[in-house]
Amino acid sequence: MRRIIILAVILVACSGSVSAESDRYWPGFVNGNMWRDWPLNVRISYIFGTVDGFLYSNTFGANENITGLIQNCLADNEGEQMLAIVEQYMRDHPDNWNEGMNHNVWWAIYDVCFKA
What is the pTM of this model? Predict the structure, then answer.
């Protein structure tokens, strides 16, 4: 399980872009249904790892303005707050439960940080 989370984070970080407009995205190893079945602490860890990957992605060429906006938006959030953001997105979008969880985390963050 730990290997899956680590690989997912690495692959998200290596994606090269966190653009919401990107039509190129790899769904990763974990989909929404798998994530929903995990214990609370593992779901929070997955979110932290995915967000850390987004924030580190400028190292691989992602837009630093976007990663900066994400960092500023989420800076004061704790694990349970970030979990609530993602869980709300998942409740509102059950049609995405079969999608890659990295994708779902991105859109949850996008809704909170970029649509506000």
Answer: 0.72
